[in-house]
Amino acid sequence: MKINLGPVTRLEGHLSVITTVEDNRIIDARCQGEMFRGFEAILKDRDPLDAQQITQRICGVCPYAHAIASCYAQEQAYGLTPPPNGRILQNLIQGANHLYDYLLHFYQLAALDFVDVTAVLEYRGADAELLKVKSWLRAELDSGRPSAAAPFLPRLPGSYIREADTSITLLKHYLEALGVQQKANQASALFGGRFPHATAIFPGGCTRAVTVDLIVQYQALIQETRDFIRDKYLPDLLAVARAFPEYWKIGASKAAHLSFGLLPRGPAQDAGRLFGPGFLKDGKVTPVDYTQITEEVRYAKYSSPSGLPVKDGQLQPAPGKPEAYSWIKAPRYNGQVVEVGPAARVLVEFYSRGNPAITSLVESLTGKLDVDPASLDSVLGRHLCRAISATVIADFLMAESERLVPGQPTIAELHIPAEAEGYGATEASRGALLHYIRLKNYRIDKYECVVPTTWNASPRDDQGRPGAMEAALIGTKVADQTAQLEAGRIVRSFDPCLACAIH
Ligand code: NFE
């Protein structure tokens, strides 16, 4: 039986997942990105300094990651190193965006896969926001229009958290998290100029001056966000993990893991990063080589040649191409299928043993939950690694903001060459993000983005091998062949963003 799970809700953009189910098991899965955009074509022949602005418009959720990747690429092309303040400000803007994004994903996008929302109907406490939700849900149910209660109801058949108190706590934090996300976004906007698309991030640093007043405001906002992460997000995640231990074994991609590293510790991009870069296969981490990345298009709706390296990327749309089923290309690393994202970021760092704080956090949390680090390749593993990333990044941002020096320069002087090229790589919240720029006669001759969800939601490659998300779905047992709640939980554990994937 073939089931189209699309459009999959509670994620960004247009994703269909077609599964084939036999005897309550998914035996095939195809992820389809359903839109063409063509940002790389838009960038052609433009002034290179437009790039960090235009590429932010790829997405309203992770615009800073695109701005940062573009700045890194341009900095490499122009031979630029920002002053210390400049790199710190870029980190403070990007890091705050990660915190917002993890909270958004856990509470607004993923939690409703697990929480029993109907528990609120029995709520007898005094929390005004919960009482509002209770009376709103009651009214919608009594009116016979549960669909008007989206995203809380209706919901797929399946098992949800059994303890009413846990569901109610999660729901309360669902509402609180909206306000906390606003604080994280305000922190980004203090130095970025605005949210979601920052004006101040620029190749060579940041155009915003540093003042004591701004530092104090930033720290207050991050402190509140950090408290919520420690006191609520992490415990809530542990509660979900304890309620659904089977999800340590569900949704493994069994792919290699790739991370480009996140948050440079100094002005130079290779100064070492809070999360180090690496390619992880069979427990062994090797350095990343961007020239090993190719984009295959046998099953993607492009007539361009398949398997081109990033710097030769092409974009010829072919909507009617036989066999093709997605607008997402299939990136591969050294010919291998790869998962990117929070699990990759944490596992690469964990197996590199470069950051003792991350090593001990992974060990203590997996120990508490009685699982081994290899189990992080799973639905719960991806969720846990987001919470680990949030905890570590929040601490880093507080320390990093202390290093700012008011009155010192925040941006390097620019000299743009007529011809040059550069790669810019970072970790967006959803994983490894690469931008490549080539200049000719002071204009953009070639711009290429290889984006996290392009890796994870990729269609089959030239050899017919499924992408990471497809592989994570194949083999999964489902209780209800039509609803496939398990499949929704797997897909959302990747936090796919289709706007980014198709760009
Ligand atoms: Ni549109 Fe993005 C992130 C990037 S995902 S959210 O994180 O880059 O492909």
Topology, please?
Blueprint: E1 2-4, E2 15-22, E3 25-33, H1 39-43, H2 51-54, H3 63-78, H4 84-110, H5 128-142, H6 164-192, E4 201-202, E5 205-206, H7 212-243, E6 256-259, E7 262-264, E8 273-275, E9 278-281, E10 284-286, E11 293-296, E12 308-309, E13 330-333, E14 338-339, H8 342-352, H9 356-369, H10 379-402, E15 420-428, E16 431-440, E17 443-450, H11 452-456, H12 468-473, H13 485-493, H14 498-502
Parallel strand pairs: 6-14
Antiparallel strand pairs: 1-2, 2-3, 4-5, 6-9, 7-8, 9-10, 11-12, 11-13, 15-16, 16-17
Helix pairs in contact: 4-6, 4-7, 4-10, 6-7, 7-10, 8-10
Describe this structure in words.
- With 503 residues, this protein is of the alpha+beta class.
- The chain has one domain (30-142, 154-465): Orthogonal Bundle (Cytochrome-c3 Hydrogenase, chain B).
- 40% of the residues lie in helices and 16% in strands.
- The strands form six sheets. It has a four-stranded mixed β-sheet, covered by helices on one side. The chain has a three-stranded antiparallel β-sheet with strand order 1-2-3. It has a three-stranded antiparallel β-sheet with strand order 12-11-13, with no helix packed on it.
- A hairpin with an 8-residue loop joins strand 7 and strand 8.
- The structure holds NI-FE active center (NFE).
- Residues 12, 59, 61-62, 65-66, 428-430, 433, 451-453, 497, 499-501 line the site of NI-FE active center (NFE).
